[in-house]
Write a structure and sequence with these properties.
- It contains 11 helices and 14 strands.
- By secondary structure, it is α/β, with parallel strands linked by helices.
- The protein has 2 domains: 146 residues, translation initiation factor eif-2b, domain 1 (Four Helix Bundle (Hemerythrin (Met), subunit A), Up-down Bundle); 196 residues, 3-Layer(aba) Sandwich (Rossmann fold), CATH 3.40.50.
- The strands form 3 sheets. A 7-stranded mixed sheet has the order 6-5-4-7-10-13-14.
- The chain is globular and about 65 Å long.
- The structure holds 5-S-methyl-1-O-phosphono-5-thio-D-ribulose.
- The site of 5-S-methyl-1-O-phosphono-5-thio-D-ribulose has 20 residues, from helix 2 and strand 9.
């Protein structure tokens, strides 16, 4: 267990007590993140005191999942102001840090939303003529508010979706959209936690999620701590489980949802959605309103992160790529709205157009 956890606990769910990240101290504080690159072998925090360390942690997936990287970025901008005593110095630090924080990863829109929100607070603070100390206090207060909001949204998503889980059912999920991907109880997994707390009993199938194994390393770890039964399957095995009628429902998270409902999520999600549709199994996206990007019409406009080829060839003891072989490693794909039964949010289960969220 990670120390200092007064957390988004999921009471009655066994020992799911960890903090994905936590700010320690006042305006001169530091950000602690649970280093997800080490899970499940080691539960170890990284202490980050510089914004570039937050950017690296986001890029390495030491902190990951759309909502969690939004919160980490907000605190990362607070780190840029550590030790600042002059307003000019503080403005210069922000101008230098904001663009690189905003683009640390391209697909999850939460990162952009939260960095933009912190930038607006900086502009307001400047126009209010705040002194350096007050500016930094207001900035940190906003980052804390973003974290609290994330936790509230997670609870709301759980409440909205819990009724979809039938007694004795089997739910397939892909990647990790759990507590580890947020600062609260997660999105897709929050629905499961909420249903479990209400007394519904079910089983989870977790896709291993190649290449970085968020399913077998993170979702399995987190569900096991909660006491919810989980079996990991190879990504390629999902079709066979659908064919046997062994999957009743699919719920995944999303990194960005366009105005028409198209939803980007971890690579492999679209394949699962196509399988679900072919086998008439409902496929739901669970995401907070902060993951919606209503400025874009469709999923075609969602930038898909391309990650290093090393992630493909390095597992299983292979030490070098085969010479002359190309590798392609898109980290996300887009599931068209036509394949999605509903979008589970803190505002309820929605259908496009998302007027509630726009309002
Ligand atoms: O590359 P990752 O591990 O950050 O990808 C995360 C996902 O795809 C999640 O499903 C998504 O961010 C939603 S998390 C609540």
């Amino acid at each position: 267990m990670v120390a200092g956890s007064e957390q988004p606990t999921i009471q009655d769910l066994g020992s799911l007590n960890f903090r994905t990240l936590r700010w320690v101290g006042d305006v001169d504080g530091v950000l602690h993140i649970l280093d997800q690159t080490l899970l499940p072998d080691r539960e170890q925090e990284r202490v980050l005191s510089e914004p570039h360390q937050v950017i690296e942690a986001i890029q390495q997936l030491a902190v990951r999942g759309a909502p969690a990287i939004g919160v980490a970025a907000a605190y990362g901008l607070c780190l840029a102001l550590r030790g600042c005593t002059q307003l000019e110095q503080l403005q210069a630090k922000l101008a230098e840090t904001i663009p690189s924080m905003r683009t640390a990863r391209p697909t999850a829109v939460n990162l952009h939303h939260m960095v933009d929100r912190m930038s607006s607070v900086a502009m307001e603070a400047a126009s209010d003529d705040l002194g350096c100390q007050q500016f930094r206090e207001r900035f940190l207060a906003e980052a804390r508010a973003i974290e609290e909001e994330d936790q509230r949204y997670c609870r709301g998503i759980g409440e909205s979706g819990a009724g979809l889980i039938a007694e004795g059912s089997t739910i397939l999920t892909h990647c990790n959209a759990g507590a580890l991907a947020t600062t609260g109880t997660g999105t897709a997994l929050s629905v499961l936690y909420s249903a479990w707390q209400k007394g519904t009993r079910f089983t989870v199938l977790a896709d291993e999620t190649r290449p970085l194994l968020q399913g077998s390393r993170l979702t399995a770890w987190e569900l096991q701590r909660s006491g919810i039964p989980v079996d990991v399957i190879c990504d390629g095995a999902a079709g066979s489980f659908f064919q046997q009628g062994a999957i009743d429902l699919v719920i995944t998270g999303s990194d960005r949802i366009a105005a028409n409902g198209d939803a980007a999520n971890k690579i492999g999600t679209y394949s699962i959605a196509v399988l679900a549709r072919a086998h008439e199994v409902p496929f739901y996206i669970a995401a907070p309103s902060s993951s919606f990007d209503l400025d874009i019409e469709s999923g075609h406009e969602i930038p898909i992160e391309q990650r290093s080829a090393d992630e493909i060839w390095s597992p299983m003891g292979q030490k070098q790529p085969l010479e002359g072989i190309g590798y392609r490693n898109p980290a996300f794909d887009v599931t068209p709205a036509s394949h999605i039964a509903g979008w589970i949010t803190e505002l309820g289960i929605l259908q496009p157009p998302f007027e509630e969220i726009r309002r």
